[in-house]
Amino acid sequence: MVIHLMAPAKKNDNGFSAPCQKCGYKRDFIGGVIKTCLDCFLDGHSLYVYEYGFSKPADEVIKEATDFLEGNLSFGPYNLLTNNCGHFATYCKTGSKKSEQVEDAVEKVDDFMDDLFEGLIRIAAGMAAVGGAVGGVAVAGAYCLDAQRRR
């Protein structure tokens, strides 16, 4: 069995789902800390084993997760960015509430924004160079026109 933090389920077409034969889990659950069989936890995905640099002993991890499950402790509602399954697992294992998935996503967005900003600066610099050249031609043309009128 696996104790984990689950996002609220999306309703299926008929509004309910049959419970799992192994653990009784119903996919229309409202979300929170739950206990399911491994099959329901994976939901058709592959198992990924994360290696933590530091980890509490297994009995402490299980006790902490069980305390959340039984309502002795509150982990709060699921939030994709600030309180997701990665935060829950990391907190139970290490005592630190963070999510590598969120940190990786934020880093990728930050890198994308840096690249975008640098590209916009290059475009603006190119436009300024073209604008300067066009402006210089316009000023030179106006000067020649003015010089012709004075003659």
From TrEMBL:
Pfam families listed in its UniProt record: LRAT
Family matches, as Gene3D superfamilies: endopeptidase domain like (from Nostoc punctiforme)
UniProt cross-references to InterPro entries, sorted A to Z: LRAT_dom (IPR007053)
Keywords: Membrane, Transmembrane, Transmembrane helix
Membrane-traversing stretches: 120-145
Domain LRAT: 1-101
Domain of life: Eukaryota
The UniProt record lists the keyword tRNA processing: no
Protein's name in the database: Uncharacterized protein LOC111277562
Species in which this protein is naturally found: Durio zibethinus (Durian)
Gene expressing this chain: LOC111277562
